[in-house]
Amino acid sequence: MTGKQLEFDQRVTRLNKKHQKLSRGYRATMRSDGLVVMKPQRVRSAVPARVLLMCVVGFFGFKAFLLSHLGPSAYDTRVDALHQGTAVEQAGAWIMQADPVTAFFATQLNKVMF
Q: Where are the transmembrane segments (predicted)?
């Protein structure tokens, strides 16, 4: 009897998982034998990966533009001033510090602009 109970529990678990997936959205498809089957739709992210990538590239571009426009010494002076501020300003200073990617883009931008 335990084998039958285990098989039943596995079936119930499988059906509960399928029900959870179908509760997030589904589409009806017809199989080749004419049976209509409900298939769960994939859950899409609220923010697409392309948008996140564009934000990161834009952020590095902004930092590179600032570094190129102000120059390394003035840029470092402003970041150091942020280090002396509140916790939020210190977090901003950590984010805005010149990194190798930003320095590379700034040199490339200097070649193009000046």
A: 47-66
Task: Please provide the average confidence, as pLDDT, over all residues in the chain.
Answer: 90
In which residue are the tokens 């280090």 written? 83
Q: From the CB of residue 105, how many other CB atoms can be counted at a distance below 10 Å?
A: 18
Q: H-type helices in the chain, by residue range?
A: 2-23, 49-70, 72-83, 87-96, 100-113
**Contact between 38 and 26 (Cβ < 8 Å):** yes
pLDDT tens-digit map of 30-72: 999 999 988 888 777 788 899 999 999 999 999 999 999 999 9
**Predicted local confidence at residue 44, as pLDDT:** 76
Nearest to 22 by CA among 10, 38, 45, 4: 38
Q: Are 93 and 82 in contact (CB under 8 A)?
A: yes
